[in-house]
Every structure is written in structure tokens, then in C-alpha cells.
Design brief:
about 110 residues
Length: about 110
Amino acid sequence: MKHFPAAIPFLEGGRSMLFVALMKVRAGTEEERLTRRLQWQYPAEMCVLAEYWLNTTDPQIITIFEADSFAPMSQVTSSWDDVYDITITPAVTAEEGIKQAREMME
């Protein structure tokens, strides 16, 4: 897994967009998926902040990352959609969510 010390600049304001990917097992054995994962790398355009492997199949993997375009997300889904149902959604940190909520209430 490749980690980056700084965020990838987003299109506006010099910020990246935060995303969470939830990967639910669709096919293949655990051994097949693990063997494949050991050889696979995230696209360079993704800043992976964390990858968690859960002791469940729904979801089995959670990845938190930053990106500034859809392209790396498409690469991930193309690489893994035969063995995982993948849901990728924008996210904010709790701190940022609270800040936005306060601004909306002003």
C-alpha cells in the first residue's frame, strides 16, 4: 500500500476529497482474495489513509482515501468488482462535519 505524506491537491482550494470504500465479498475464496491482494497496489493517484480488514464479509474491507478525480476509483472497482461489491462514498471527518453543521446553523 502506498501512503503519501501530503494530500493530493483538490480541484478548488488546494484540498483533496475524502472517500470511504466499503468492499463486500462477492466471490472467490479468502485464500484467492488474499493472494491477489498481496500482489496488488493502489493507483498512484489515491492517497490511502487507512485500510481495515474486518472479521465479517459485509463489508470485509474498508478503505479511507483521498483523491482529486474519479479515475483512481474506477481503477479500483475495475480491478476488484469480480470478487467484491464495492461502494465508494464521499466522507468528512467528524471535526469537519461539526464545523459545517455549526456554519449551517448560523
